[in-house]
Amino acid sequence: MSSQEIPEEKNLPTEQETEHGSVAVADENPFADPGLPPHEHRIQDIDERAAKRSERAIAFMFTLSMLATVGFIASFVAIPADKSIYVWPIGHISGLNFALGLTLGVALFCIGAGAVHWARTLMSDVEVADDRHPIEAEPEVRAKVMADFRAGAQESQFGRRKLIRNTMFGALALVPLSGVVLLRDLGPLPEDKLRHTKWAKGKKLVNMNTHEPLRPSDVQVGSLTFAMPDGMSEHDHDFQVQIAKAALMIVRIQPENIKDKRELEWSHEGIVAYSKICTHVGCPISLYEQQTHHVLCPCHQSTFDLSDGARVIFGPAGHALPQLRIGVNEEGYLEALGDFEEPVGPAFWERG
């Protein structure tokens, strides 16, 4: 192999010949610490006018965040939930969702952008090298940490730049209000709505299948009829909510077979009206045994005795079915003489 074919070796330590003829390697460290580059001052460090401009820019971003948070709350209150707007190139979207997303995004972005701009232009950017030290917190270490903290607070100009400090506090104080306002979307408080249904004095009992008012002659002994209040329609926007409380089952029992005194007083010629909603978990009751006058919930087999105040005789239900007091109006139709006197359906915290 010729000398031209021998590859050149690069980055190898330099060899030097000693006085005894041996070869030694030059004492050079290829991984020496190059040290920190010389610090370059920013324009804000040497020009107070530039620092003031940065201060105003940061304060503007924090102020814009506060205004965006106020806009978020105003949008939530003022914009209807069903309002639609056209936004190019997205198309038709919810105006409320668009306004909430835009204002909340601006509020959070401006806080972050203001903090970053503050750190990049006004806080000290001097590189500091610190030696490794033991993990245990000795008194000297704690003293040094506190001294470093005070030095950092002084270098950040937090106490000097009051405009930045006050607007930052304002932005951080207002942003959490967005989350508080969103709690309103959990829905309105139930108040006493669970205790009331569409039944009221004078409301006629309407057959749920034929949608015709019921006369006493329409209810035969041993039959089970389902009814709803007059005036309700399946096309109503809240029909499902209201029928879940107002659904009624009507049974005719021989008066001498009714054991409960109040049930007999609230009936008409043996026709009794009870809530169709099971008091366990709210399933609709649909099974009736005419010999025993028992009704059965198909979900968990709760059984109620309609001849004895609809009391529970089997199953997990904890309460009897509420009874509706009924009578007959001048036209001969069955009508309610008031609303249920207790909440229908499953037990809830106000009951008991």
From TrEMBL:
Residues 7-20 have a biased composition (Basic and acidic residues). It is a multi-pass membrane protein. GO terms for cellular component: plasma membrane. GO terms for molecular function: 2 iron, 2 sulfur cluster binding; metal ion binding; monooxygenase activity; oxidoreductase activity, acting on paired donors, with incorporation or reduction of molecular oxygen. The keyword Disulfide bond applies. Residues 1-37 are annotated as: Disordered. InterPro entries: QcrA_N, Rieske_2Fe-2S, Rieske_2Fe-2S_sf, Rieske_Fe-S_prot. Its main location: membrane. It is found in: Cell membrane. The cytochrome bc1 complex is composed of a cytochrome b (QcrB), the Rieske iron-sulfur protein (QcrA) and a diheme cytochrome c (QcrC) subunit. Belongs to the Rieske iron-sulfur protein family. Iron-sulfur subunit of the cytochrome bc1 complex, an essential component of the respiratory electron transport chain required for ATP synthesis. The bc1 complex catalyzes the oxidation of menaquinol and the reduction of cytochrome c in the respiratory chain. The bc1 complex operates through a Q-cycle mechanism that couples electron transfer to generation of the proton gradient that drives ATP synthesis. This is Cytochrome bc1 complex Rieske iron-sulfur subunit.
